[in-house]
Write a structure and sequence with these properties.
This protein is mainly beta. It folds into 3 domains: 1-32; 43-250, no CATH class; 257-335, Alpha-Beta Plaits, CATH 3.30.70. It has 3 helices and 23 strands. Strands 3-8-11-12-13-14-15 form a 7-stranded antiparallel β-sheet, with no helix packed on it. Strands 4-5-6-7 form a 4-stranded antiparallel β-sheet, with no helix packed on it. The chain has a 4-stranded antiparallel β-sheet with strand order 16-17-18-19, with no helix packed on it. The protein is globular, with a radius of gyration of 28 Å. The N and C termini lie far apart (102 Å). 31% of the residues are buried.
């Protein structure tokens, strides 16, 4: 072994070489910047990761124009993470300028964001015709799983809003809906709905009014009672945009017209639930009071699926006939809900 001479304690020459190599390696590491994968925010890759490096980057889930002209637009994204929590945000952008930012404080993102298909649990579209054209982004696993969908809604000929639908949870799913509107370079949350406790469900459909072609927002919400002595609760609320007040308002007070697939009429709630139990074809149906439908005889209970879309109701009815051959299946169009005071 060789030593360096001329020192009080001889030093092995091999140690010197090892020390110099380590110092050079550390110096090079300090000079080399950490690179974040530039494809992480590329929506066409089908995955937007939120991990060690990507947690310091914004994950863009979608961009949407505020109107037919100009560069002003909405951005739905996951902001850089803090303390392992990554907030969902809506931003109002014009080019690279950020005019406004609003946190979606209902829940946070955890882990990677990947594309998934919209289904009946997403809260997006008609009850019998989920809007599968939309892209859903899923983050987290099981209890911290969140699915997020952004949709453009044409409120007036010159103004689009951004509707954000989110679903969270694993065994007991919950949904939340927000509508944002841009005015004078500011973001306003003009409408939001959140499900309560228990076995709840909701979905939002966007349609054109048959009267004047203007846009209507249909909010279906329900509660599935776990008992055999009380029917389920299902409500349809119709909203329209009031541009002067920059808000959504409930439409005319008359009851909305719906298409209903009826899979049997029963004298009690218990008998209706017995017919539904164990039949996967009827899993999405509701046990409803027949008094809710203007075309049905009062005093009974029906297994029903409600839709705003007549074609979707007809297709569901035809598919159901082969699945439940012993139950009379029909489609009716009727006013739905109980008039005020009743």
């Amino acid at each position: 072994m060789q030593f360096i001479s001329g020192s009080r304690s001889p030093i092995p020459l091999t140690w010197v070489f090892l020390f110099l190599a380590s110092a050079i390696s550390a110096s090079r590491s300090a000079e080399t910047p950490v690179r974040v994968n530039p494809r992480l925010n590329d929506l066409h890759q089908g995955s937007a990761r939120v991990s060690d490096k990507a947690s310091r980057s914004r994950i863009i889930l979608g961009t949407f124009k505020t109107g037919p002209r100009g560069d002003l637009g909405y951005e739905l994204s996951i902001a850089p993470c803090t303390d392992m929590e990554c907030p969902f945000q809506v931003r109002l952008l014009e080019g690279t300028k950020v005019w406004a930012t609003v946190d979606l404080d209902w829940t946070k993102a955890h882990g990677p964001a990947t594309k998934e298909k919209v289904d009946g649990s997403s809260g997006v579209g008609d009850p019998l015709l989920p809007d599968t054209r939309q892209t859903a982004w899923s983050t987290g696993e099981e209890k911290v799983n969140v699915s997020t969908v952004g949709r453009s809604i044409r409120l007036t000929p010159e103004l689009n809003g951004l509707l954000v639908d989110q679903r969270a949870g694993f065994d007991r799913l919950k949904r939340h809906h927000d509508l944002f509107v841009a005015r004078e370079n500011k973001l306003t949350r003009v409408w939001d709905q959140e499900e309560g406790a228990g076995p709840t469900w909701s979905t939002v459909e966007i349609v054109n009014s048959p009267r004047d072609g203007s846009v209507r927002l249909l909010y279906f919400s329900g509660f599935r009672y776990p008992s055999d002595d009380q029917p389920d609760w299902l409500q349809l609320s119709v909203y329209r945009c009031n541009p002067a007040k920059n808000q959504l308002q409930l439409d005319a007070p008359e009851l909305p017209s719906v298409f209903a697939v009826i899979a049997g009429t029963y004298s009690t709630v218990a008998k209706a639930r017995e017919a539904q139990e164990g039949n996967s074809c009827l899993g999405a149906f509701w046990v409803l009071d027949s008094d809710q439908f203007s075309k049905l005889s009062p005093g009974n209970f029906v297994l029903a699926a409600v839709s705003y879309n007549g074609h979707a109701a007809s297709r569901n009815s035809e598919a159901l006939k082969s699945c439940v051959p012993r139950s009379p299946v029909s489609v009716i169009r009727a006013s739905y809900g109980k008039p005020e005071g009743k």
